[in-house]
Amino acid sequence: MFYRQAGIHHTTYRGDRALFAIPFERWQIGVLLAFALVVPAVVSSLYMKSYVLPWLIWSAAALGLNLILGWAGQFHFGYAAIMGIGAYTAVHATLNRIPFEIAIVLGGVMATLIGCAFAITALRVRGLYLALSTLALQFVMDWVINKVPAVSGGTQATIQAPSMRLLGNEITSDAGLYYVALVWCILVTVFMLNLRRTGLGRALVAVREKDFAAAVIGVNSFYYKLVAFAMSSFIGGVSGAILVFCFYHAVTPEQFAVNVSIQVLAMVIVGGLGSIIGCYFGVAFILLLPGIVANLIFAAAQALDLKIGIELLAHIPALLYGVLIIGFLLFEPLGLAKIYSNLRNYFIFWPFGYAKK
Amino acid sequence: MFRKLRTLLGAAALALALPSAQAADPIRFGLCYDLTKAYTFITPQVVQAVKDYAALLNMKGGLEGHPIELIVQDHGNEPQRGIECYERVKSQAVTVDLLSTPVSRAVLPRAMKDGNVMIQALVGRGDAIDGEVFKWVFPLGPTYWGQAANIVSYFKKQSGGSLKGKKIAFLYIDYPFGQEPIPVMKELQKREGFELELFPYPLPGSDQSSAWSQLRRYQPDLIVHWAFSAMHVVAAKEAKRNGIPLDRMITVNWFNDVDLNNIGADAAKGIRRSATVTSGTEHPIVKDILRELYDKGKGNGDRKFVSDIYYTTGLAIYAPIFEAARLAVKSEKAPLTAERMRKGLESLNNYSANGLLPALTVTAKDHGGGGRTRIEMWDGAKWVPQSDWFADYTDLVWSTVKQHSGEFAQAGGK
Questions:
Q1: CATH number, domain with residue B37
Q2: Is the dihedral of CA B338, B340, B341, B343 positive or negative?
Q3: Domain span including residue B326
Q4: Distance CA A137, CA A125 (A)
Q5: How far is B313 from B45, CA to CA, in rounded Å?
Q6: Residue A263's closest chain B neighbor by CA?
Q7: Phi/psi class of residue A7: alpha, beta or left (left: φ > 0; alpha: ψ in -120 to 50)?
Q8: A273 lies in which domain range?
Q9: pLDDT tens, A216-245?
């Protein structure tokens, strides 16, 4: 009923290959976009600044990781380091009076260069060995940031990001920063949506499924893996820079440490490998849910006037959160995206569920 | 996807709207602490202390009639959640305290931009004591640079006024916290002519063997140790193994009774620490808390923590803050704004809470309050102060501070 498919005839190749073939979904996307545009007006500043904004930026980053993990099937344990390279490059560049627009691209390019240099050596191995060599990238980056004062900014190890000047306008308002993040997130999402439909995207999927089988049908697996690393590093680098300029306003080593790498990885896996909407879900789950659960528990304890020790109270959300992760993985191992697609499938046939084969 | 998030957010907002105002105009203080991850070696005692002290003050009528209310929230040492907590409490609370270096660093640009008082005791940027640049940030205590300088000054006095020919080993955990005092130590080496050797060991500090075997060869006269929590226990073991007596060691202020008991009260005999507060249960405020709260079963935690130095550290962080808020509401009846809270803090003059902490004089220029510390020694049964409260080499500390805060101001952070 909602996802009415009756009357949709694919008479042209263009129509057949449309991103959203079902009209209802086009409406959905339209409404979501319209809502995204008015968020600064309707969502309170607290939720916009500390929930929606980081959610968008991290979703863009997670999409970048999903490209390499979900599409090309290559493990990457050093994604935070890639983001960090982008962030540090962009901050240093703007401090050296390079315009922000160029600096942010520089951040992406630098992340791509270093990411690829690593990938060329790391891609000689597969699977878990690749995972470990990308972890090495993370530790090398941590070491460089910690040990080279020119990068980290000396003993304070924190560099202030200058305020963002975009096309000659200084962007300091919360709404402005939000729109910058939104545009970047939409750009990455559109890119990823389209990647699925290109020869490049199909080649990546072929490599993911079996790289030597892909080689047999004429797909140079090393080349495509490298391209995947390059693309995802670029997205990661720019996302890292956006994260610092729009959200943190200062760059420090622990923002891009190994635990952050694991966190992004968790976002992609919990969201669903190779799924775009899954990244949004995954980020919401991993990044935002712990805070929300903690706030709820704290508020509940306060409202009920429970005399629980502060330490125990702080650990209950962690416990609940763990239970939630296990629960979701038991309930649907393919990630939150699969839950969404199950729901969607149900509504495609609803109320004529018996018509489903 | 928005819908799902919105429902969740709506629920969270609803739940948070519940705690409503009770008495007339409470003054709220935001404590966004890491209660679950890296800082758990200190945060429970600090929260307990602050809650106890607030309860005690509230019993006596609060701050000029205004009850104190604390908003305690966990940020799990994650910058993102710290920012969320800051944004949440900033409109209600007169001060926001993060008590975590990564989170303080992440929140500082916002506090500076929004003009909210941010407390940053013993963590975060050391150069934040420069009130001219960091107008809204209040460390209210010594920097690590100052602590290191004071330790060297104490050692100089102990060695009869000269450090020529003395060997000082700087042993530290190899990340920014441990690396911070190095420039000051090197400058002091130039001034005082002692020998200085650096001995880093890697995170998480559970393997210090190579640093200590080098220390054995070096045979220093003094080991200055920058570490916290379990690293002290590892260090004590390695010291024993390498035959270096612990009485040659002075640690940074992060050494408490838990570490001491883990080393063993006898084994730790002779170890010295740099102290920023008076520890123990002899202080009038602590006695009051024990009598009014714990004896009546109204304490906010385990009684055994009260004697811990981190408990007293919590008291010492908040005693000046509460006092400043009191000064601020006393001077004017209007609601307490961030601006007035800042003025209140900057009007603290020679405040020591009856000797709980070294007398603090905060000015618009100096948000550190003087940076005085003292050295304490564990004699096997109790901590014995080895000196009076003092601050030395302040010119060096301030030139280091100015150098860093200058860079911050230049980057447009001001």
A1: 3.40.50.2300
A2: positive
A3: 26-142+280-372
A4: 15
A5: 9
A6: B78
A7: left
A8: 51-355
A9: 999 999 999 999 999 999 999 999 999 999
Which has the closest alpha carbon to B252: B179, B203, B321? B179
Structure tokens at B115: 């003009």
What is the C-alpha separation between A137 and A121, in angstroms, rounded?
Answer: 11
One domain, residues B121 and B154: no
Q: What residue in B sits closest to A149 (Cα-Cα)?
A: B176
Q: Hey, is B63 helix, strand or coil?
A: strand
DSSP string, A62-73: HHHHHIIIIIS-
Which stretches of B75-145 are assigned E, i.e. beta strand? 93-97, 117-119, 137-138
Dihedral of the alpha carbons of A93, A98, A102, A105, in degrees to the nearest 10: 0
**B339 CB neighbour count, 10 Å cutoff:** 13
Residues contacting A182, CB < 8 A, separation 6+: A36, A37, A39, A56
- Are A280 and B1 spatial neighbours (Cβ–Cβ below 8 Å)? yes
For A59, the token pair is: 């979703």
Q: How far apart are alpha carbons A78 and A71 in whole angstroms?
A: 17
- Please check whether residue A21 is in contact with residue A8, taking contact to mean a CB–CB distance below 8 angstroms: yes
The answer to whether residue B128 sits within a structural domain is: yes
- Is A33 part of the contact surface with chain B (CB cutoff 8 Å)? no
Q: CA-based Rg of chain A, rounded to a whole angstrom? A: 22
Query: A115 CB near a chain B CB, below 8 Å?
Result: no
How far apart are the C-alpha atoms of B266 and B260, rounded to whole Å? 9
Residue A34 forms part of a structural domain: no
How many domains in chain A?
A: 1
Cα gap A314→A311, rounded to integer Å: 5
Complex prediction ipTM = 0.87
- Long-range contact list for B357-362, CB < 8 A, 24+ apart? B357/B141, B357/B276, B357/B277, B357/B278, B357/B316, B357/B319, B357/B320, B358/B276, B358/B389, B359/B389, B360/B140, B360/B320, B362/B131, B362/B138, B362/B140, B362/B320, B362/B324
Q: Which two tokens stand for residue B74?
A: 């966990």
Q: What are phi and psi of B100, to 5 degrees?
A: -160, 135
Q: Using pLDDT thresholds of 50, 70 and 90, give the confidence band for residue B23.
A: very low
Which pair of structure tokens corresponds to residue A189?
Answer: 């999402």
What pLDDT digit, counting tens, does each position of B291-349 carry? 999 999 988 888 989 999 999 999 999 999 999 999 999 887 778 899 999 999 999 99
Q: Is residue B86 part of a domain?
A: yes
Q: Which two tokens stand for residue B321?
A: 């803050």
- Asked if residue B391 lies in contact with residue B371, where contact means CB atoms within 8 angstroms, the answer is yes
- Judge if B292 and B262 occupy the same domain: no
The whole-angstrom separation of Cα B323 and Cα B327 is 6
Q: Which of B1, B18, B105 sits opposite A250 (nearest CB)?
A: B105
- Residues of chain A found within 8 Å of residue B40, distances taken between Cβ atoms: 311
Quote the percentage of chain A above a pLDDT of 70. Answer: 98
Residue A291 in contact with partner chain B when CB distance is under 8 A: yes
Sole residue written with tokens 């622990």? A254
